[in-house]
Amino acid sequence: MSAAYGLYGHIRANRTRSTILVVGLFILIYLLVFAFTLAFNGVVMGGEDLETILGETGVQFLYMLPLSTLGGALWVLVGYKFHQRMIDMSTGAKDVSREEEPDLYNTLENLCISRGIPMPKLQVIETDVLNAYASGMNEKQYRIAVTRGLMNTLDREEMEAVLGHELTHIRNGDVRLMVVAVVIAGIITLAGEMVFRSLRHMRMGSSSSSGGNKKGGGAIAILIAVVIIAVAWFLSLVIRFALSRSREYLADAGAVELTKNPDAMIRALRKIEGKSDMPAVPSGIMEMCIDNQKNSLADLFSTHPSIARRIGKLVAVAGGQEGVATPNSPST
Fold it and tell me: Around 311, how many Cα atoms within 13 Å sit in the side-chain half-sphere?
């Protein structure tokens, strides 16, 4: 077990890689600003050659760079302040006390005490779906939410493993990073939509007033801008999915480190598989869940490794038993 879970060096390296990816998301914001400026100039300066349009765009972009950084930072600040309220509204999660859910509360508290981890707030989502997630940006905000379906389906050891998984996300800084990444990626999605809508209006105005003079570099500039926007959007998705995928294996490992029970984690994952989808919950929040069965058509676009891969890793690294039976668990 000690050989399997001497993962702290790997966790540190993963945090470094993740920080670089978040910086990459800010770079994507700058790409979108450049693309919007280029598209605007492509319409307004349509009769000029491409080199002139690109030169003017570069000058304007340098002036807009500080404002773009400030806008991105303000967006992240809004997400920092209000993300928990938005998550709770989206999922219907409600805080619960020890008196309301004594078994669940005591299980989480014991895990926290065993490793000196501050106790996050506990939430329950009233749905038959089987899922859980951790959220928050600091110790005052940290929460772990589990669905009623999960509580009714898992036995105590399995629930302890799930709570250990979510505590590991908090301990490793995954939760804070995912919130920031989702907030920044939201900027990219919003900015991309704004660019395309603005382009449509600009093109309509240009076609009605210019008499169709398309001999300059404007059309090529607009095409380049559209390609940049498409690439930025695609890369933002890949970055978000990479952030999520790389953490699930470590969180599973952390759950076993906390509980010393890889088989309980395996059983929990088996029960959750195929029953985790919450259709009304935004994709960004689903990326924080213990399982996200959306986006499972291709591995590149999957926010989580498959349950089979995660179980295989637990068997290979943690000494779990792949064929372990599921003992006396409550029925749904």
Answer: 18
**Is residue 324 in some structural domain?**
no
Q: First and final CA of the chain: distance in angstroms?
A: 33
Burial of 2 (0-12, 13-18, 19+ CB in 10 A): exposed
Could you tell me which residues are beta bridge partners of residue 125? Answer: 147
Residue 253 lies in a domain: yes
Regarding beta strands 143-147 and 121-125, do their DSSP bridges make them parallel or antiparallel, or are they unpaired?
A: parallel
How far apart, in whole angstroms, are the C-alpha atoms of residue 54 and residue 59? Answer: 9
Distance CA 67, CA 152 (A): 50
Residue 166 appears among annotated catalytic residues: yes
Closest CA to 69 of 35, 37, 27: 27
- What secondary structure letter does DSSP report for 329? P
From 48, 158, 160, 166, the catalytic residue: 166
Question: What is the value of pTM for the model shown?
Answer: 0.77
CA angle (183, 186, 188) in 5-degree steps: 125
Q: Which residues of 268-304 are buried (b: 16+ CB within 10 A; e: fewer)?
A: bbbbbbebbbbeebeebbbbbbbbbbbbeeeeeebbb
Count, residues in the chain: 332
| Mean pLDDT confidence for 3-15 | 58
Host domain of residue 189: 8-318
Residue 290 lies in a domain: yes
In angstroms, the Cα distances linking 133 to 104, 143, 155, 257 are 15, 8, 18, 19
Report yes or no on 59 lying in a domain.
yes
pLDDT in tens, 57-112: 999 999 999 998 888 788 778 877 888 888 999 999 999 999 999 999 999 999 99
d(CA 303, CA 147): 20
Provide the domain count of the chain.
Answer: 1
